[in-house]
Amino acid sequence: MFQKTDVSSLDEVNAAVDHAVAEFGPPDILVNNAAVQLIGQDARAHEVSEEVWDRTIDINLKGAWRCMKAVIPHMLGRSGSIINIASPTGMLGVAPDFSAYSTSKGGIFGLTKVSAAGYARDGIRFNAIVPGTTSTPLIADMLKDDDERRRLKNMVPMGRIGTPEDLVGIAVFLASEESAYCTGGVYMADGGMTAV
C-alpha cells in the first residue's frame, strides 16, 4: 500500500501510521529512509542558510523521530524492529560541503543509540544501516556529472557506486528474528568507505 506522507508533518505521519494500522494491524518493522540532500544549497557551516539547515534537519532527523513517535506506541507490549538509515557523512568528514546533511545523519546515530537503550526492555530494537554512495534519486543529479561520479566512485575502496539492492540483505536481517539479540548496532553497507 502506498501512502504519500510528508515526514516533516507529525499530522501526516500519524495519519499514515493510523491508515497502515487500520489496514494491516500493528506494525512490526519501521524503516526510516526519507531524506533530502540539498545539493547546491547545503554548504560549510558559516555558508549554509538557516532555511536549508532547518529543512534538512526537519526531514532527515526530525522526520525519523516523528515516524518513531507514531509507530512505537503500537509496538509497546509486543516487540518491533526500527531501522534507521544513516550515512558515512554523519561519522566522518567525507562531505565537507554538506554540513546540514552530515549533521542530520550524525543525529541519526544518537537517536538510534539512545532509543536502543531506552526501549530494550520493551522488546523494541533499534539499529542503523550506513550505506555508502548509493545510486538513488537523492544524488541522481550529482551522478549525472561524469567527473563527480568518478570522484565519488574513487572514494569507495570497492571501486563502485552502491545500489539499493546492496542494502536488502542487511535490512531483511535486521527486520527479522534472526537479529533478535541485535540492538544499538551500526551496520555498514558502504563498500568500505568507513574502513579507511
Walk me through the structure:
This protein has 196 residues and is an alpha/beta fold. The chain has one domain: Rossmann fold (3-Layer(aba) Sandwich), CATH 3.40.50. The chain is built from 7 helices and 4 strands. It has a 4-stranded parallel β-sheet with strand order 1-2-3-4, with helices on both faces. Helix 4 links the parallel strand 2 and strand 3. Helix 1 packs parallel to helix 3 and helix 2 runs parallel beside helix 4. The protein is globular, with a radius of gyration of 17 Å. The protein starts with 9 loop residues before the first helix and ends in a 7-residue tail after the last strand. The mean pLDDT is 97.
What's the short version?
By secondary structure, the chain is of the alpha/beta class. Helices cover 42% and strands 11% of the residues.
Broad shape: globular
Total helical segments: 7
N/C terminus separation:
40 Å
Q: State the domain count.
A: 1
Gross CATH architecture: 3-Layer(aba) Sandwich
Number of strands: 4
Order of helices and strands: HEHHEHEHHHE
Q: What is the average per-residue confidence, as pLDDT, rounded to a whole number?
A: 97
- Strand order, biggest sheet? 1-2-3-4
Helicity range: 40-55%
CATH evolutionary superfamily: NAD(P)-binding Rossmann-like Domain
Largest sheet: 4 strands, parallel
Poorly predicted regions are none
Estimated radius of gyration? 17 Å
Kindly report the CATH topology: Rossmann fold
The chain-level structural class is alpha/beta
Strand content: 5-15%
Specify the CATH class. Alpha Beta
